[in-house]
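Contributing new complexes? Match this layout with fe (ii) ion.
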Amino acid sequence: MQSQIDAYFEAMEVLFSVRDPKVLTALGPSSVRGLLLHRGKQGTPTDMPATHTAHFDWSYPNDQPEMADLYRRAKVGQWNGDDLPWNISVDPLDPTRPLIPEEFLCFEEIEALGIKLDKKERAELGYSMCAWMLSQFLHGEQGALFAAAQVTEAVQFFDGKLYGATQVMDEGRHVEVFNRYLDTKLNKLYQINDNLFVIIDSLMTDGRWDMKFLGMQIMVEGLALGAFSTLYKETKEPLLKEVLKMVIQDEARHVHYGVCALREHFTKHITERERQEREDWSFEIALLMRNRFAAYEVYEEWFEGRMTRAEWRNVVYRSKGMNEFRTVMFSRLVPNLREIGLLSPRIMPRYEEVGLMQYFGGLAADQLTADKLLADLH
Ligand SMILES: [Fe+2]
Ligand SMILES: [Fe+2]
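Output block (do not edit by hand):
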């Protein structure tokens, strides 16, 4: 009961912290559905009405050479999920090949709250955290699959539509491999995190293609790339490492596409007021991603009644693994926002306030190859 009240107040805190009324209008209904009604957790499928416009062009122009090049690379880069080494047997509690290293979580913080976990429990908690992360990847990939399909219909660039078709296939394959790994190797699936639900709900139901694009290709893909990369770097389980390596290579193209399409659109096709709205929206989403992905589903399984949600959030926030995840995520995300024109001097002080300006000078996705991304993680 106390935990439910805490969750309710936390949802209110999220809503009241949004300063811009337009952003609140865009996020509010999704927040109510996700944070208060827990629509993703009712054990039934969720229907989200989509209101975008399918844009046809009967002249088939070659209008975007950079996207045409991405399309060519994406065709060559296709792979078959069946070819991964699925014969590797995975023991989630094997100490010689841990899914995530012990220091990924901060056990001292948990102990400081009077909760002592023995070696076996620590390994089991690591297993829970890893299964939780992979479950969120899977749910995010389902969102990415549908968003990629919607954007393929709605985008005006013809070369972007062809490229988009490859992304739909990529995302389908990501759903396939994460689902297969969770189902056949970890035998565990967590429900969708409420904050992830809010972001997906918000961009699926927004009729504006560029908002879908910004939400999925820049924000959620940035989040995913940060999380995939951290797990890729930290895991000692060889099959998971291979799955993540293949997925990261596809995701690098997806974010590149997002930067390429939105840079063109935001600098040439929208008004300054519209640009500002997108700038504010992405800041709020960045904050949500920074502060709220606290694995509450793991908390409810392990610690509900033994510590408060705020205490758990603190444990997660201070853990080495989550810290690294945030660093990788924002070092990729912030330069991309700069590159598409959503980090103007007007918003910089707010990024400064929350400590994110340190990533401002990094390379954006159009200057990063998949090889470079992977090399950075060694
Ligand atoms: Fe994906
Ligand atoms: Fe993707």
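Reviewers usually confirm one structural detail per submission. For this one: The pocket of fe (ii) ion (ligand 2) is lined by residues 144, 171, 221, 251, 254 (CB under 6 Å).
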